Amino acid sequence: PVYLAAKYRPAGVYLSARSVVVIHNLFHQGVFGPATFGGLGLPDHWFGALDYQYPPEQRQGSYEEEGHALNYLKAGISCADRVAAVSPGYAYEITTPEGGFGLDGIVGHRWYHLNGILNGIDEDDWSPENDVHLEHNYSASDLSGKAEMKLAVQRELGLREDPNIPLLAFIGRLDPQKGADMLLEAVPWIVSEGAQLVMLGSGKQDLEDGLKWAEGAYRDNVRGWVGFNVPFSHRLTAAADILIMPSRFEPCGLNQMYAMRYGTVPIAHATGGLRDTVITFNPYENEGTGWAFSPATTDALIDSIGKALFTYREHPECWKSLMVRGMTRDCSWDSAASAYEEIFGWSKQDPPITG
């Protein structure tokens, strides 16, 4: 976007071209020292488009210029013809001080050019009917294979083989963003409820140690797999009754959509794309796709798990409806592609930025 506006359009080149910046995670902004501006080949008067001065509490002492830095994402957001985020919820959150990571004012200034579009998933790769990683395939019309997958994974991990024991899963990066620490705090309560828990992921050492602690302390009910294994992630998604996603922030999230596709009910913190996709179960109308909790605390997480376990045990027909609604939800890229095509059209409605 910056080169189009600063170099090409003023020279009469690419006059019909437009640019769209898609924000996946605003935390990663592309920040460099001011002295690097000379290597970009931009006119000197464009320095201000990239210049960003961090407030004192955010300065890390990397540069001597009183917190000044070149912020590539700030420039891209400012110069793009349209801006998109990977979910409607995240599009709103990046305009707030809590979710903007210092750029909320810049994003908010482009509010009328900002849209949120949910990512899709590869429905061929993530298909319980055809998944090559599953010993037992199944569908929304025949869920028997899911029960067999649960027994197979329990057997593989040395857990008690019982289709009636609720099996909870966590699959993801072990990082405070993903809320793994909250889940670890909830482990004693989960075990006290007679549930099984399998956690798969790698990341920060203290959280990897937490997975090992949980398995060692609750050997009969908990397994912690430090690392990542694609085939097992598919099998665990198929085997689990509940997927837990306690992310503190999540621009879109894919695991909750994988889970729903496999009839695994998600419990997630109501943030970003999780808020858009995980609709809290309404027992009176028999609606919803899972449980979304807020705030991002262990107590709120436990409360939602408790409601899910109660529904699983006491209202099996409602639970089956939850599973089937998730499995039949449209998670493909088709609707996202249509939305992006619409944005590409809108990008040509306003005069382009040039200078």
Q: What is the share of helical residues?
A: 25-40%
Radius of gyration: 23 Å
Structure summary, number of beta strands = 12
Strand coverage percent: 5-15%
Gap from first CA to last CA: 12 Å
Shape: elongated
Please tally the helical runs, counting DSSP H or I stretches of 4 or more residues.
15
User: Would you tell me the overall average pLDDT?
Assistant: 94
Unreliable stretches covering 5 or more consecutive residues: none
SSE topology string: HEEHEEHEHHHEHEHEHEHEHEHEHHH
Biggest sheet, in brief?
A: 6 strands, parallel
Instruction: Give the strand line-up of the largest sheet.
Output: 9-8-7-10-11-12
Kindly name the structural category: alpha/beta
Give an account of the 3D structure.
With 355 residues, this protein is an alpha/beta fold. Helices cover 40% and strands 14% of the residues. The chain has 15 helices and 12 strands. It has helices at 2-8, 47-50, 72-79, 88-93, 97-100, 104-109, 144-157, 180-192, 205-217, 230-239, 255-261, 272-277, 298-314, 316-328, 334-346, and strands at residues 20-23, 31-32, 51-53, 68-71, 82-85, 114-116, 167-171, 196-201, 222-226, 242-245, 265-269, 291-293. The strands form 3 sheets. A 6-stranded parallel β-sheet has the order 9-8-7-10-11-12, sandwiched between helices. Strands 1-5-6 form a 3-stranded parallel β-sheet. The mean pLDDT is 94.
